[in-house]
Amino acid sequence: MASKVFLDANVLLDLTLKREYYLVSKKIFGLAVNGDIEAYTTPAIVHIIAYWLTKAYGKQKTKELILYILDDVRVIDCNHEITLTAINSSIEDIEDALQYYTGIQHKLDYFLTRDRLLKKMAVHTLPIYTPEDFLKEVVYL
Q: Residue 80: exposed, middle, or buried by beta-carbon count in 10 A (0-12, 13-18, 19+)?
């Protein structure tokens, strides 16, 4: 069975806006397209990327890009209990906490982000990797 991997907003924005880490994010997304990983995100992440993509490309292109992503990335969400757990956690950034604890709730295997501060807050249940580290340490073992 393929690993279940959470894709944070910065990973998806690197891909869709062709930012500095575009090629790495493209490799990660390619793993999802090929079925090597199961990729997940949340409605909040879709909201975040929609905002930035609309600023960059306009509404129609944004919808096309998001629909393209959602062909291979499943949207998951958290319930009331997990929301409370996230808010009461040691992660100070509420948005990050909500994403992270949603991943834990859905029993994901890895959480990919460029947020180095969040990486320091990981618990053993859901390890946090940068996309580069994930490719080096997990995919290409």
A: exposed
